[in-house]
UniProtKB/TrEMBL annotation:
Keywords: Sigma factor, Transcription, Transcription regulation. This is RNA polymerase sigma-70 factor, ECF subfamily. GO terms for biological process: DNA-templated transcription initiation. Belongs to the sigma-70 factor family. ECF subfamily. It holds the Pfam family Sigma70_r4_2.
Length: 164
C-alpha cells in the first residue's frame, strides 16, 4: 500500500512500514485507536514526510556548501565544470584535513551534518562563542586555501593561452 501511494523510495517502503508498526507498538495510548490500520498508515505517512524533509534539508545544505566555496550546484554543471568542481572539492577536503582537530570536528558537524551551534554545544560541551570562533577560523582558512588554489588555476590557464 505504501509503495503504491509513495513509490519505491527513498525512503524504502518496507523500512517505513516497520518503523510505523514499531512506533505503534511502543506508543503508550490511553485507549486503542478505533481504526488501528488507519493509525499505522498515518504514522507511516508522517515518517515519509519527515524523511523527505530531511532529504530536502540535506540537499539544501549541500547547495549552500557549494555556494560558499563558489561552486555551481551539480545539476547546473557541464562536463568541464564538473571536472573543475571535482578538483575544487578535493582542495576543500585537503583544506579541511589541514585544520586543527577541533575545527575539523566543528565544521563537519555544522556544515555537513547540519547541526545547530546549540546541538554542537550540548554534544561537545563547548561554548557557543567558542564554536562560532572556531567555525569562522576554519571557514577563513578553507577560503584562503581555496583562493590560493584558484589563483594558481587562473595563472596556469593564462600560461596555457600564452603557449598556444
Amino acid at each position: 500500500m505504501l509503495r503504491a501511494k509513495f513509490g519505491n523510495g527513498p525512503p524504502d517502503p518496507e523500512d517505513i512500514a516497520q518503523q510505523a508498526f514499531m512506533r505503534y507498538a511502543e506508543a503508550e495510548l490511553a485507549q486503542p485507536p478505533d481504526n488501528p490500520k488507519a493509525f499505522v498508515y498515518t504514522i507511516a505517512r508522517n515518517l515519509i514526510i519527515d524523511a523527505h524533509r530531511v532529504q530536502s534539508r540535506q540537499e539544501q545544505l549541500i547547495d549552500d556548501i557549494f555556494a560558499e566555496v563558489g561552486m555551481l550546484p551539480l545539476n547546473e554543471s557541464s562536463a568541464e565544470s564538473c571536472l573543475l568542481e571535482g578538483e575544487r572539492m578535493q582542495m576543500v577536503e585537503r583544506a579541511v584535513a589541514s585544520l586543527p582537530a577541533k575545527q575539523q570536528e566543528l565544521i563537519v558537524a555544522s556544515r555537513l551534518r547540519g547541526e545547530t551551534y546549540q546541538q554542537i554545544a550540548a554534544r561537545t560541551g563547548y561554548s557557543l562563542g567558542d564554536i562560532s570562533r572556531n567555525i569562522e577560523r576554519a571557514h577563513t582558512a578553507i577560503q584562503t586555501m581555496l583562493q590560493a588554489w584558484e589563483d594558481g588555476q587562473q595563472q596556469s590557464m593564462v600560461q596555457q593561452r600564452e603557449y598556444l
